[in-house]
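ok so I'm stuck.
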Amino acid sequence: MKDEDPGNRLGSYLRARRELVSPAQAGIPPGGNRRVPGLRREEVALLAGISPDYYLRLERGRDKNPSPQVLEALAGVLRLDDTERTYLLGLTAARPRAPRRKRPEHVPARVHELLAHLQIPAFVEGRAFDVLASNPMAVALSPRLRPGRNRLRSLLLDPEERAFQQDWTRSTADFVATLRTTIGDDTDDPRFVELVGELALSSPRFRTLWARHDVATLDGGTTTVNHPVVGELRLHRDKLAIGDVILVVYYPDKGSDSDEKLRLLASLAGTESGDAALDRPTDTPHH
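replied:
not stuck anymore, here's the structure
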């Protein structure tokens, strides 16, 4: 991507992460004229037990195959969690990347049938958060869950989606970190290049988050949204892999206030009878 050297992903990641660790977090006494955010290179090297010259070579891409022991030491200094540590270990040149054929993301017919039977918001998304198919309840929950829309683009650029999310700041951080994790080695994938390029130009929030090099996985969890008709909804989220795509479902606690509101939403949207047509694209978004 344009903000970093694709040939030096390890160095870009190390530099971004050390800038996020304060001297206090690393146990370094305050003071001195610090001209850089976070830790200095020599401080990271000292804490990791390697020479400053060797660490400089790592950041500048002159050594792309450090030992696992060195990476583990750096992960500790940079305060990486398990997901971030795994990402760091995967950035080395030790594992050659096998060429992959790019295939269009396809929603199996049986999944369209499943969506039609589900009475809770459900949709299918691709690796870049493109909505590939959705049921009427998903569209009733948010019109931005129609096929052809991109969830990350809506989150960052659509004012209605920002109002919909109770914790927009956290949601944007989670989505961008998940996108970076999903991209992995596929930095030349046309869809990822297109999406990252568009958002880097149009969203200051995206530029800030992308520069942090955060990585995360956005799987199950609970979220609260502000629906313009029925009000606040507290919903659980589960993601189920089906081939190359992901089925996402949202559901409330049984008998809860959100359960009643979701039933009201179904009634208002005319989906309770199951007569509403399944929302599917005429053409699957290309990748």
